[in-house]
Each structure stands twice: as structure tokens, then as C-alpha cells.
UniProtKB/TrEMBL annotation:
Residues 452-498, 524-547 are annotated as: Disordered. Belongs to the TolB family. Residues 481-498, 524-535 have a biased composition (Low complexity). Residues 538-547 have a biased composition (Basic residues). This is Amidohydrolase. It holds the Pfam family PD40. InterPro entries: 6-blade_b-propeller_TolB-like, Metal-dep_hydrolase_composite, WD40.
Amino acid sequence: MTLHGPSLAADGRLAHVRHVGARRDLVVGEQTLTEGEDVFGFAPRWVGPDELLYTADGSVGRRELSGTRRDVPFTATVPVVAHRDYRQRRPGARGPEVTGIASPVCSRDGSHVAFRALNALWVMPIGEPPRKVVAEGYFASDPDFSPDGRHLIYSSDRAGTADLWSLELATGAQRRITDVRGAAITPRFSRDGKQVAYQDQDGATWVAALAGGPPRQVTPPMFQPGRPDWSPDGRTLVLAAVKPRATRFREVTSQVLRVDVETGALHYAEALPLRSLATRGDDGPVRSPDGGHLAFVVESTAWIVPVDAAGAFTDAPRQVTTELTDSLSWRDAEHLLFLNGGELRSVHIGTGEVTPIPLELRWSPARTSQNQVVRAGALWDGTSRELRRDVDIVLAGERIAAVLPAQDERAQLDARELTAMPGLIDAHVHWHLRGRQWGDRQGRAWLAYGVTTTRSPGDPAYQMQETREALSSEDPASARGTSPPARPSTATASTTTSCAARSASSSCGWRCSGRPHWTTTWPRPTCAFPCGCSRPPSPRRTRRAGR
């Protein structure tokens, strides 16, 4: 038996929803008021000394303690827009400015910012260019400064699974902090620098002593909680967490959760009445340096609230930004760092004055202009019922220019024991909400199953933008989840020719500049490559690689 939604009457009587097996009933004291109704897990509301408001069977009802029920009429109109004009081709990950700035955090003295971008960790003295400090091709994330600013703690899967590592900024020396079964992510230093709080792959929060010893679990597993932060005395953690109303439903709010580190006691508080925290990731709550305030994001703006030593609210929250706000971090007791439109900013919590923080970081998408022919034992084009056997797949730069019957001495890459097919698309994934603990293995697992394109309908925006830019970057170390491709060597004279030389023996009859390039025989005259011919390839015979 499980009880949900407790609600006290003015005289102290307790109403709740009782869950036994597949049955849910509205109960007051020991009296069961419903029979055969599918009662929703929300708390009932007392609307009189002997009457309750509740929901069941998809409708709202009023139930007297005598047993009489009356439905509350409710209708709503949902407008449907038949057509909307909007820009459908979005800029996406194209550069040159980096906008995927993930998990920015300030040093305790407010002079430096650490963040993840292009699959690397960076440290930037404010007012100076950023410096890349961790860039090994693995998934490194969630940096945090030690209180003295000399070390950076972060999560990395360089050893196979996500564990915590410490980087000495002056020397570059690295030390592994955890070696746990599963994952260790989202670390945060305690104020004295002796402990670190982190979360595992199931959403449980742990505390590890940097001096050594086994980590200690301080919360049960939770549904995708936010990154924890410490009170100045080290006795309390705060984080964003879903407050469950019932095990059956996901209709809940993200609230501020206080955790007693010693006892594990949990205390939830709504950030604002009937409103939810933003993404449970980098949007708070975060504790101010003096411990006197919590900051968090609600509906894309920053709010602060005064708190006591245990983190309990002592007054009403107050809004401090009016523009889109993400990824909060305290610079000092009066300033918050945040992201807006891919740029770092600082806001004074008293005056609301916003100051830009320059961050110059550029990148270039990967491009290739080389041509290659792949010999495949079989090909499935995604629509045919039969495989095509023994084919040459002609790659012209970033496109598939042709698929031809196999011909001797034409292929550069021998895949005759394999079957080629279009890349699959996974249309519903969560790289960072559900898959962060997999790190670099996540992309490799998709590729192993033939998935070359993913769509994330719900992830923290900056985390996902960083992933898009990293995967698209021309820097092989940034291409997380893929093996850096071996670039083919320049083709030799024996395997290249020109349109002019081949015009008598092939179907390529278009005028050409004569530069060496791959030539092919088409069912009708055309030139397959962007080699300078007076006529470009037919778009009907050109497919984007991997699509």
C-alpha cells in the first residue's frame, strides 16, 4: 500500500489517495469515499468542512463525506493553426562563432570561468582568451573550481566509464578521484575543498572525500536531478529535483530539494507557487558565496531568494533578469554569471545591471573535397525489396555521386564482405538527460547499430548545441563518438584520368577543364564530379552521404 497527496482539513483530518495494487481510492481517515473510480494521484483539496475537490476518471469532482459526488463541468478550446510561416532551415551548427558553451562555472574569486565547448574543457581568465585544458577526444564535462582555484574537478570517461578527475591547472597533472561501478557525473566541490558531491547513472547523489575512502550515498535514485551545490558549513546540499505526486504519473513540478548530508533527510520547496524550475541541469539552485541566497531559473529568467543556514527560504523569491537566462553561477555575493543567446553575461542582483563577458572562440565545420570509390558486396537503398550485389559507391566530396556495377581497379576502399545501407535516424533521444553517463560510448553505440543521425526533442539547449558543434567540427579530437576518419591518399596516375582522355571510351562527353578526377559511365551523358566541367552533376543522382 502506498499513500499519495496528503491534505489536511482545518480541524486536522487527513485526506489522501490510497494506492493498493491497481486500485486508487480517495480516503479520509479510515473512511474510503470512492468505489471503482480511477482517482488521480494529486492531493485532494478541502472546499468545506465535509467536502473535497479531486480528480478521477478524467474529470473534476466534488465529493461529500456522506458519499455524494457531483461533477464539476469543465471544457476548453484548443486552437489549431493550420499553417504558419516560419523559417524552417535553422542555422544549427555552422560556425564560425562557438555558441555551445556548456556548464560555465566561475572560480571562487570570480576571475576565471571554466566551461565545455567543442568536446574540450576550457578555462578563461575574464577579459582574456580561453585556454584549452582538457582535450583528449573523450567526453569530459561538468568542470568545477576548487576553492583555492588551483584545481579543476570534472567527469571524464577516459578510463572507460565516467569517473571524477582532478586537474592541477598550473602543471596539467591529473588524478583520478573515483573508480566506481557505473558513472560519476556533475561534481561540485564543498566549500572547504575536502569533499565533492556528484551523481550516478541512476540519479542518486553521493559524497566522496578527496582524502580517500568509499563514497557515501545521500539520496535515493531520482528522475534526472540537477547538479548539487553545498552550504558553506558542508551540512546541506541543494539541487533541482522532481517532487513525485504518484508513481503512476509524470505530471509533477521541479522543486528545490534540500538534503541533510548526515541523515539523508529530504525537504522539498516550490521555487514559486505552482511553478517549476527550468531544466534540472545547470539552471540552479546554486548557493551564493556567503550562503545567504539561492539562485535558480524559472521560466527562463533568474531569481534569487534569501535562505537560512540550512537553505530554507526566509522570504519570497525576487526576479533579477528579464532576458533569456541559462546556466547560473555566482561570480561573487552580488553578481551572477549566466548565458544568453550563446554569450556570457553578468548581472548585479541588486540593480539588475547586465554586463557582457567577452568570449572569443571560433570553429569550422568539417568539410572534404576528396573523391573516393567504395566497393561494397551488397547495397540496400532503403526502399528496394532486393539487395544490389557487387557495386561501386562513388563519393564526390560530401555526396554520393553514383552507385555503379563493380568494375576492376576502380575501388579505393574494399568493403566487398559488407553491406552498405543509408544511415538510420533515431528520432527521439536524450543525449544529456538520459545518456550523459554513457559519455563517448553513446555515439559509438549508435554508429554500431547503423544510426548516423539523431534527433533530441528535449535536452538542455547549450549542452545539445555543444554536442552538435563537437560532432560537426573539423578537429578530429572534437568529434565525440566517432573515430577520426583516415583521409585517403591522393590518387595515383594509374587510377585517375581526365574527361578529355576518357571521352572516347566513356559516356562523359561534357567539356571539362582537364583536371584529373574520377570518371564514371552513366546511363546518360553527364559528369559526376565538381571538377570544372561546364555542366554540374544531376541533382537527381546526388545524395548526401549518410542520409
